[in-house]
Design a protein that fits this description.
Elements: E1 2-6, H1 12-15, E2 16-20, E3 30-39, H2 42-49, E4 66-69, E5 75-78, E6 90-94, E7 99-100, H3 107-111, H4 115-127, E8 135-139, H5 144-155, E9 159-164, H6 167-176, E10 180-183, H7 189-196, E11 202-207, H8 212-220, E12 221-229, H9 242-248, E13 251-254, H10 260-263, H11 265-280, E14 288-293, H12 297-306, E15 312-316
Parallel strand pairs: 8-9, 8-11, 9-10, 11-12, 12-13, 14-15
Antiparallel strand pairs: 1-2, 3-4, 3-6, 3-15, 4-5, 5-7
């Protein structure tokens, strides 16, 4: 089969190589899956660079989120068991963690439903306890993680403010349903949020960016507000001023979604059921901006690394047809 492999660490476009390799053999408790679609996530970038908390042995195949097909023909969602990731024709996954793919979504959309939407659901509902009528601020609202949070926030009845970088991304955020869109490249984010909220600030802030975005969050978080720290796509890891959290009376909440797979897997299944129901009634639908063939995966991962994409970029191997079963 064909698979992209990383033999040395660095920028994805430089270290990912498409090679002919043997199909992986499932271990105990694992299943072999034909990859129908593999969604690109920022952890794929970090793994190629050697900056992710999980460091598979070299060489490895990136791709942490797929829509796959079992040997008996079922469409499923899975996080492949590294080093046999999803940017390949076949991958392996832990059988206990495989989830049914929603019938309402095609392969590429289904592949993009898992990590980003689970992270959004856990961040907004489990950690921040977002309530209808509250104001939600989403950084990088046009990106893969941010777009999921925007849709989930709207589905929960929140007023959603989206912060983006550039006119093209601002247009995408409006199409996603953001009530207010702020272009950080041409606007003062802090002033714009205060104006949009009458000076009150945002009740919940969803931050997959870190760096300056986190600093802005601390300036616009409302009384008893909650800042959900999801990631550091900017590369800057903030050092929170806990005295500031104390005097402004807000909470800083960390979210590492992957921990739930071992700490509380039943909650992951419950979340998937909630997401499947929301997708079935059209309340959420992954924004797939690009569907690229397997041979273009490295270039696509690099575009995600460079921050020039919107929504989700999905790799579709040659055997996948992209159609819902």
């Amino acid at each position: 089969m064909q698979a992209w492999q990383v033999h040395e660490l660095g920028e994805p476009s430089e270290v990912m190589r498409l090679q002919d390799v043997q199909a992986p053999t499932p271990g105990d408790g694992q299943v072999l899956l034909r990859v129908r679609a593999a969604n690109i996530n920022f952890p794929d970038v970090l793994m190629a660079r050697g900056h992710y908390q999980v460091r598979p042995p070299l060489p490895f195949t990136p791709g942490v989120e797929i829509c796959g097909e079992t040997e008996d023909g079922r469409r499923v969602l899975a996080n492949p068991a590294l080093p046999y990731g999803g940017f390949a024709e076949y991958a392996v996954a832990d059988a206990a963690a495989v989830l049914p793919a929603p019938d309402s979504l095609d392969d590429a959309e289904a592949a993009a439903l898992h990590i980003g939407y689970q992270t959004g659901w856990f961040g907004l509902h489990r950690r921040a306890r977002l309530e209808a009528g509250e104001t939600l601020l989403v950084h990088a609202a046009a990106g893969g993680v941010g777009s999921a949070a925007v849709q989930l926030g709207k589905a929960a009845g929140a007023t959603v403010i989206g912060v983006v970088g550039g006119a093209e991304k601002a247009a995408v955020a409006r199409e996603l349903g953001c009530d207010v869109v702020i272009d950080r490249k041409g606007e003062d984010v802090v002033a714009a949020v205060k104006e949009a909220t009458g000076g009150r600030g945002a009740d919940v802030i969803y931050d997959p960016v870190g760096g300056e975005a986190y600093t802005q969050s601390t300036k616009v978080v409302a009384f008893e507000g909650r800042i959900v720290v999801v990631g550091f796509a900017s590369g800057g890891i903030p050092s929170p001023g806990l005295n500031h959290a104390l005097v402004k009376n807000y909470s800083i909440l960390g979210l590492h979604w992957g921990l739930y797979n071992t700490k509380n897997p039943k909650l992951v299944l419950h979340c998937h059921e909630q997401l499947t129901e929301l997708a079935a009634r059209g309340a959420i639908k992954p924004l797939v901006s690009e569907r690229v063939p397997l041979g273009e995966a490295a270039a696509a991962v690099q575009r995600v690394a460079d921050g020039v994409t919107t929504g989700r970029v999905v790799v579709v191997p040659p055997l996948a047809n992209g159609a819902a079963a």
